[in-house]
Amino acid sequence: MRRRTVLLWIAAPCLFAALLGIPTLVRTIRQCQFNDAQQFVQNHGGSLDFDLVDGNYMVELRGDAATDETIRKLVPTLKRLPTGFTVIGPGEERSFWVSLDGSGITDSGISEICELGVAWLTLNGGSITDATATKLSQPSELYGIILNNAGLSEAAIAKLRTAKPDATITVDGASE
Question: Which residues are within 8 A (CB) of 115 and not within 5 positions of it... i.e. 6 or more apart?
Answer without folding.
Answer: 75, 79
